[in-house]
Amino acid sequence: MKLLELKKDLYYVGVIDKGLEVFDVVMQTKYGSSYNSYLLKTNEGAVLFETCKIGFFDEYIENIKKICSLDDITYLVVNHTEPDHSGSVAALLELNPNIKIIGSRIAGCYLGEITNSSCLNFMEVKPGDSLTVGEYELNFVKAPFLHWPDSMYTYIPKLNSLITCDSFGAHFAWSDVLLSKMNKDYADYKDAFDFYYEVIFSPFKKYALNALEEVKKLDVDLICPGHGPVIDCDIETVLGWWKANSEIENVENKALVVYSSAYGYTGLGASQIEDTLKSQNMPFESFKIDVQNYPCLKEKILSLLQTSKYIFIGSPTINSDAIPLFYDLFASLHANFKKPQDVFVFGSYGWSGEAVKNLSDRLTQIKYNVVSSYRYKFMPSNEDKASLVEATKNLIK
Ligand code: FEO
Q1: What's the distance, CA 373 to chain centroid?
Q2: CA 229 / ligand 1 centre spacing (Å)
Q3: Which residue's CA is the closest to the ligand 1 atom numbered 2?
Q4: I need a surface site. Which of 78, 119, 170, 344 has the fewest CB within 10 A?
Q5: Could you count the other beta carbons within 10 Å of the beta carbon of residue 294?
Q6: Nearest-CA neighbor of 63 among 42, 75, 80, 46?
Q7: Sign of CA dihedral 322, 325, 329, 335
Q8: How sure is the predictor about 338, in pLDDT bands with cuts at 50, 70 and 90?
């Protein structure tokens, strides 16, 4: 990586990981990524912002050495401690044990556990705190849960520069580093940016909007994220993408019925529920899922699972459990900061009937409010139908 001075005294010292195909186990990275780190030279030593994934440590150190001696590093700011940014802290401290580390209180806790060290030279900062290093002031900006509780941003007023770690980042290996060097249609970058937001930040939209308000109070013409291009142009465009991705869907006064049915018996229960919803003038949508139609319906159902006030889930029991499609569906929902939504779980069974309990337990784990459940043997009797009607009315009353 050739030396890149972003502004007077502020350098890019990150590494590009073009070969990355999977991040955090769950995320495909078709554009690769980068682990961005920045170095600010001051007349009281250098300040580093973030480190890098440990596998790239040698390259990272070589980048720093092009600018200053490792002994010149006074501070390391950790805006976020996930190991793709903090994984090299211990190795860096072996080369210069005198570096003071700056971060939020929670970052200090996490870093102690990541480095297995109880004696880090750590300085806690709070939102609104400032630190003067030589001719530069560093301001620490509130950004919790983006996407860990430890997260914060660092603003350098003299350079109008904001260092944000994961926020406003993307898994996008861009060898030219600067966004201004990219073709203006930004098609692939936008694709990577939106996907990164969806996977990393969508459980934290409220916090993402709060952080955006904080950023708007600052005079910023350079955003330095932890992944992907350094945003040195079109800042409003990128902040607009962030805002659009952060739109929060409200829970509406409507119902959702999702069920599977092998021989129609659970389906008869669903019909009873649908008829009751109609009679109560409750708007609803209903989906019968199977292995063939599920891939097409999944996104629609996921959206409704987050926006419907009342939810009815029905599954027969096959091999002592619910239909696996439901577990896949629930695995795609974010439990963090979920608003309460009321659920009724139902299903027909033959011998053991675990599906209703297992689905109820899983829904409770992901913070749905399972109000009640009902299971019945094979074909619902008149008594079963009456119970389903009553449960439906109770849920929506
Ligand atoms: Fe790029 Fe949350 O680490």
Answers
A1: 31
A2: 15
A3: 82
A4: 119
A5: 18
A6: 46
A7: positive
A8: low
The 3 state secondary structure assigned to 146-159 is: CCCCCCEEEEEHHH
Distance in angstroms (rounded) separating the CA atoms of residues 279 and 121: 67
Decide if 389 contacts 356 (C-beta within 8 A).
no
| Centre of ligand 1 from the C-alpha of residue 85, in Å | 7
Q: Is the CB of 226 under 6 A from ligand 1?
A: yes
Q: Helices (H) and strands (E) in the chain — how many of each? A: 12, 21
Q: In whole numbers, what is the pLDDT of the chain averaged over residues?
A: 96
Structure tokens at 190: 């936008």
Cα separations (Å) of 358 from 143, 346, 362?
37, 11, 6
* Ligand 1 atom index nearest CA of 227: 1
278-291 pLDDT tens trace: 999 999 999 999 99
Which residue's CA lies nearest to atom 1 of ligand 1? 166
Ligand 1 atom closest to 35 (CA): 1
Instruction: Ligand 1, residue 148: give the atom nearest the CA.
Output: 2
pLDDT at 336: 65
